[in-house]
Amino acid sequence: MWFISNKILVRESGLLEGFRDCHCHLLPGVDDGVKEFDETVQILKEWELCGLKEVWFTPHIMEDIPNKPEELREKFKDTGTGLEKNDDLKIEIHLAAEHMMDGLFVKRLEENEVMPIGRDGDKLLVETSYYTPPMNMADIIERIKTKCYDPILAHPERYQYMDKRDYKMWKQRGVLLQLNLPSLVGAYGPEVQWKAEWLLKEGMYDYCGTDTHSINQLDMFLNSVMSKKIVKTVKKIAEAQEL
Ligand SMILES: [Fe+2]
Predict the structure, then answer these.
(1) Domain ranges in the chain?
(2) Paired residues of 152 in beta bridges
(3) What is the pLDDT of residues 25-38, one digit of tens each?
(4) How far is CA 16 from CA 9, 53, 54, 156, 213, in A?
(5) I want to staple 31 with a disulfide (CB 3.0 to 4.6 A). Which of 53, 60, 112, 182 is the partner?
């Protein structure tokens, strides 16, 4: 009997054709992401095969990983120089950061020790702990806006303490939401997948990223299956996202 599957391998789905990744940990040796330059090259090559056009490296800046913008810029420069030797790599790379809204965040923000994302440098990628919200999160969000940045909340579907009401409330307060694509294939468990699918269905997402930390994690994602309908919906968001 013939039947047509409504699912497709991510690798073959065209999901990443023309994609601009706004969240990944490919700057080698600076956080819990890629450790060696060669792995960065390997991932970028794999992405080129998938049609990816642009990548924003977003290393962590947090109390536990106290990266300094100046050091990250230096490391990015070295990485860029290394990548220039790979003539076949056409992918465009940029540097920003993923900022944990922890005890040091406001100080960093006030001292301009943050790394905005986007060509106009007018957005800030932020995250919270998966388990508890930061104290005075509303106040922190307002401070970000006062500094003329649009806050982009990384992977809202991963925050265990957030529910449907929270997502709606943060959207109303001008927080942009960034989907981690692996959430849609169950990479972080069924509950995260369910939340991601709900947020997607409700049209709450503004940005999509891969949050890639390693080649193994990327391969697992590319070898997963996704519904064709979801691929279509995600592509629309990805095409509309302003970077
Ligand atoms: Fe991340």
Answers:
(1) 8-240
(2) 125, 176
(3) 999 999 999 999 99
(4) 12, 9, 10, 21, 17
(5) 60
Whether pLDDT at 104 is above 60: yes
Q: Say if CB 205 and CB 178 are below 8 A apart.
A: yes
Digit-coded pLDDT (tens) for 117-132: 999 999 999 999 999 9
Tell me the average pLDDT across 102-114: 97
Burial 128-167 (b: 16+ CB within 10 A, else e): beeeeebeebeebbebbeeeebbbbbbbbbbbeebeeeeb
Q: Is residue 12's pLDDT more than 70?
A: yes
What is the CA(32)–ligand 1 centre distance, in A? 9
On whether the CB atoms of residues 97 and 72 are closer than 8 A, the answer is: yes
Ligand 1 centre to CA of 30 (Å) is 13
What spacing in Å lies between the alpha carbon of 217 and ligand 1's midpoint? 13
Ligand 1 geometric centre to CA of 25 (Å): 6
Inter-CA distances, 27 with 36, 75, 147, Å: 9, 8, 26
Would you identify the CATH topology of the domain 8-240?
TIM Barrel (3.20.20)
d(CA 126, ligand 1 centre) in Å: 9
pLDDT value of position 86? 83
- CA–centroid distance, 4 to ligand 1, in Å, is 36
The residues pairing with 92 across neighbouring beta strands, listed in sequence order, are: 54
CA of 35 to the centre of ligand 1 (A): 15
pLDDT of residue 114 exceeding 90: yes
